[in-house]
Structure formats: C-alpha cells, structure tokens
Design brief:
By secondary structure, the chain is α+β, with helices and mostly antiparallel strands. The protein has three domains: 101 residues, 2-Layer Sandwich (Beta-Lactamase); 78 residues, Signal transduction histidine kinase, dimerisation/phosphotransfer (DHp) domain (Helix Hairpins), CATH 1.10.287; 154 residues, Heat Shock Protein 90 (2-Layer Sandwich), CATH 3.30.565. Helix content is 45%, strand content 25%. It contains eleven helices and twelve strands. The strands form three sheets. The chain has a five-stranded antiparallel beta sheet, with helices on both faces. A five-stranded mixed beta sheet has the order 7-9-10-12-11. The chain has a two-stranded antiparallel sheet with strand order 6-8. Strand 11 and strand 12 form a beta hairpin. Helix 5 runs antiparallel to helix 6, helix 6 packs parallel to helix 11 and helix 8 runs antiparallel to helix 11. The protein is elongated.
Length: 336
C-alpha cells in the first residue's frame, strides 16, 4: 500500500477507527504536514480542522459510506480540494481512505476565465451600444441634420476604433501567451526609440498638457527586439500621459545594475494605492474603471508589457506613492 500511495500525485490519508492517521504519502505531507512534522499517529483533528471532513470519515468508519466533498484550507495561501472518502479494510482492521485532489489552480483558472468573459462582454458591449444608438438616431432622420450628423458619425467611428483596438490587443495577448510570437533581440539605441515614441504621442501629450522628458543619453544601447521594445515603451508612456495630472510630466530614464538594463518611466499622476499594485498587470484590471473608460484604453496594455518583458528574459515592476506619481521599470538582461 505504501508503494501505491507514493506513486500518487494526489494527497492521501488513511484513517483508523480512533481517527488517527495510519498512513499518508509525500503529497499529503506537503499539503498538510509541513508545520506538524510526520502525519502518522496524529489525530485527524490535529492536522485538518474541518467538521464536514471529520463527519465524512466517521460515516466511512462507522456506517461504511462513501463521501465526496469540497475542502478549503486557509494558510499562507488558500488551497481548495475535491475530496473522496471511502471505507477500506487493512489487515482485517476497519479504516477509511481519503484522496484529496488539489483544485486550487483549476479553481483560479476558472475564475480568471469567468472574469475574462465578463470583462470582454462589457468592454465590447459599451462601444457597441453607442454605435447602435447613434446609427438608429441617424436612421430616424438625424442624417439630414447638418448641425449634428458629422458629430454622430465621429462618435460611431471612435467607438468602432475602440472595439478594433480591443480585438487587436486580445489577439496580440493570446498570440504572446500561446508562444506564437518570437523576438529577435539585437543592440538598439534606446534614445532613438524613446524619441520615436515621444513623436508618436506628442499630440496626446499636448492634449493632456503633459511634458515628455527623456533622460536617456544618446549613446545608450540595449539588447532588445526593436518592434516589441517600442510597443512596451508606447504602452507605458501612453498610460503615464493619460493618468497624469494637467501640467505634469513623464520622464524616461536609464540605469545599469550589473548585468541588467533598467528602463524607467516616471509620471507625476495621482499614484496607485498598495491594494492595486499587486494586480496592476492583470488583464482588464483597472484601478479606476470610470476614468479608464472615459479616457480610453483596453485594459490589456500592462498585461502585454508584462509578457513581452518575460519574452525578453526580463521583468516589469511598479512603485508608486499616492498623490505623487508612479514609476514603471522594465528590467532586461544585458548582452555583455
């Protein structure tokens, strides 16, 4: 039996009539025993405190019943299990065996899937509702209204473009996550890349009355894929402009830390509270949904930056002070 248990990836506990643990496997020790030491000879209540679980084992031992239940264990992190409990006999001794299937990751992925479909439904429905409403208005006679028909068409175009950008970002993120995108890193001028992005975003910066500042020296070179690096910088600088305050600035700087190149984008916006920092790179996560939708954006930009940084063998991080601003930093390995 011991050999069989050790081949199982699921956590297994065998309980005797006195509710003490007769046998377990390494998976069970990793799940339940780290702080308590060896599980054998301990009472079940010393290892897992859950009344439903204890009742299921009692029924297996005393009433020969099979049970299935869900178990949630709170520790340094919450873990969830599907548990199957059955009566067995070992050397003519009545016992019960519990097999614990860890569904923590599956449960997390299911929640991510539900959130994704909920978010994407909302993100697509909002511009689509506007498009349909203005089309109906035009059909009902507003197309002859020279004072407003152009304005209505502009709203339709803007919302159609919003949907187009959202779909592009979804396809982009999906392609990156599935390994469908490869990079071709080489030595590139970071200063030139920053200037290119600044030029592309100059109109938006002027609209928001935000100054763009580069502190990157002309001779600075990094090892990166040109297209993907420009994409990362564009996403981060665009966000820094949109979420800045009027009269603020966005500063791009560079430093070297051993074998790592550090590119930082600092803004003078309202900052991000600590409760949001841990989730800021999740798909569709927004610290201020109302403002995000008002100024545009798909909610996927930071998730794309995170994946592109990892594709380069690097990382993306953020530090922020509420009321003062935020700094997003891309760390890339140097090719030296």
């Amino acid at each position: 039996m011991s050999k069989i248990l050790e081949t199982m990836r699921e956590s297994v506990l065998v309980i005797g009539e006195d509710t003490r643990i007769l046998a377990s496997n390494d998976a069970a020790y990793n799940s339940f025993g780290r702080k308590n030491g060896a599980l054998e000879e301990k009472r079940l209540s010393e290892v897992i405190r859950d009344l439903n679980l204890h009742e299921a084992f009692r029924k297996a031992l005393q009433e020969n019943e099979f049970s299935d239940l869900k178990l949630e264990i709170l520790g340094t992190e919450k873990r969830k299990f599907d548990v199957h409990i059955a009566p067995i006999e070992l050397d003519n001794v009545k016992s019960a065996i519990g097999v614990f299937y860890d569904i923590t990751q599956i449960d997390h992925l299911e929640r991510v899937r539900q959130e994704f479909f909920s978010n994407i439904s909302h993100e697509l429905r909002t511009p689509l509702t506007s498009i349909l409403a203005f089309v109906e208005t035009l059909e009902d006679g507003a197309i002859e209204d020279e004072a407003n028909n152009r304005r209505f068409l502009t709203v339709i175009r803007r919302n159609a473009e919003r949907m187009h950008h959202l779909i592009d970002d979804i396809l982009e993120l999906s392609s990156i996550e599935s390994g469908g995108i490869s990079i071709q890193p080489k030595k590139v001028s970071l200063s030139n890349l920053v200037k290119e992005v600044f030029t592309n975003l100059s109109n938006k910066a002027g609209e928001f009355k935000v100054e763009l500042i580069s502190k990157v020296s002309p001779e600075t070179q990094i090892f990166a894929d040109v297209v993907r690096m420009e994409q990362m910088l564009t996403n981060l600088i665009d966000n820094a402009v949109k979420f800045n305050r009027e009269g603020g600035n966005v500063t791009v700087s560079y430093s070297k830390n051993g074998a790592t190149d550090l590119i930082s984008i600092t803004d003078t916006g309202e900052g991000i509270s600590s409760e949001h920092l841990q989730r800021i790179f999740e798909r569709f996560y927004r610290t201020d949904r109302a403002r995000s939708r008002e100024i545009g954006g798909t909610g996927l930009g930071l998730a794309i930056v995170k994946h592109l940084a990892k594709l380069h063998g690097g990382e993306i991080s953020v530090s922020s002070t509420v009321g003062k601003g935020s700094t997003f930093s891309i760390e890339l390995p140097s090719n030296q």
